[in-house]
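INFO batch 0412 | record 1 of 1 | parsing
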Amino acid sequence: MSGVPLYQVDAFSNEVLSGNPAAVMPLDRWLPETLMQRIAAENSVSETAFFVRREDHYEIRWFSPAMEVPLCGHATLGSAWVIFNHLDPAAQSITFRTRTMGDLTVRRDAADPARLVMDFPVTEYHPSQTFPELEAVAGLTPQSVWAVRAADFLLVLDGPEAVRDFAPKIDRIPTLGRNGVFSNGMMVTAAAPGGVDGPWGCDFVCRNFQPGRGVPEDPVTGSIHTFLVPFWRERLGRDVLVSRQLSKRGGTLYCRDLGDRIEIAGYAVPFMTGLCQVGI
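INFO prediction complete | emitting tokens
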């Protein structure tokens, strides 16, 4: 039976049915963009990663059910897991070449080969202000508000319980505008008392809502840590940080601030493999 291999990998977890499910599709050549978008919509997970092997690297692209996205951490982790475990088991590191973010590397953790370490560029963030429409959508008044990317909002809340219980009006998030550009998403975060030795077992917690990208809540998100890690490094005074994303599935990210780059590490486990019948 012919078809394109399809792997579903649960990223940022070492237990199946937790973390963030990523669909991963290795290709011999690029499919038409419209077809990749239709496949991502059919897969119906937050992101599908497609990659093509070149001589010394892999070209990679990521699609949510609604659009192509410039960066996806958990689907990159899932893609690396597929390469390390199925396509090139002898490899110790991988380079993914992207269209907008330059080269991204993933390596096996020398101390724990089951854990994979990704190297991503930092994303800038800027102070913003709260406003009535934002508070109405969030259902609370945040400690502070920060602007990320074109029009996304990062809200700092009072503590992990507030992040865990956060219940925004998700369908109204894309109606929030800034400088004439409407938002795709809203992230919330808070410091965890006691750090990794405290009751939450991490340095900070977060959640991520992206209805404008076709993802009401992303279970675990590597890409938001490209600004969350420098944000919390400045406030906690540590370069090495552990994050816990408090979605229903949950996931843990092991991070290190390198200045203009961020290392984001995590585990991944396979859920299923199969063939996508796309008629090529």
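INFO post-check: The radius of gyration is 18 Å.
INFO record closed
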